[in-house]
Specification:
This protein is α/β, with parallel strands linked by helices and 95 residues long. The protein is built from 4 helices and 3 strands. It has a single domain, classed as Rossmann fold. It has a 3-stranded parallel beta sheet.
């Protein structure tokens, strides 16, 4: 069976279940910020799934404002870098 070739036009999609949760806010999103800041994943799209309805801007604001410790750990995570770096973000909910 031939190996599949990597298509440069394909975007990498990351689905995060529980995007509004504590683990995501404290660990996952700051870690993604650090990875993105290296420039290795400029084609990454994040798709968030949550139980409650939340706007992408609300999610980012809640993440940024969750604690001063979190703010100190995050390098470039902001509304502008989210939109620019991730290309787009979608949050799905069942509420």
């Amino acid at each position: 069976m031939p190996a599949r070739e990597y298509n440069q036009n394909m975007r990498t999609k990351l689905v995060v279940f529980g995007i509004t949760g504590d683990l995501s806010r404290r660990k996952l999103l700051p870690a993604l910020d650090r990875i993105i800041s290296t420039g290795d994943f400029d084609d990454l799209s994040v798709i968030g799934v949550s139980r409650r309805k939340v706007d992408v801007h609300e999610l980012i604001a809640n993440t940024l404002g969750s604690s001063s410790e979190l703010s100190n750990r995050m390098s470039i995570f902001s509304m502008a870098s989210w939109s620019e770096t991730f290309g787009f973000a979608t949050v799905f909910s069942n509420g």
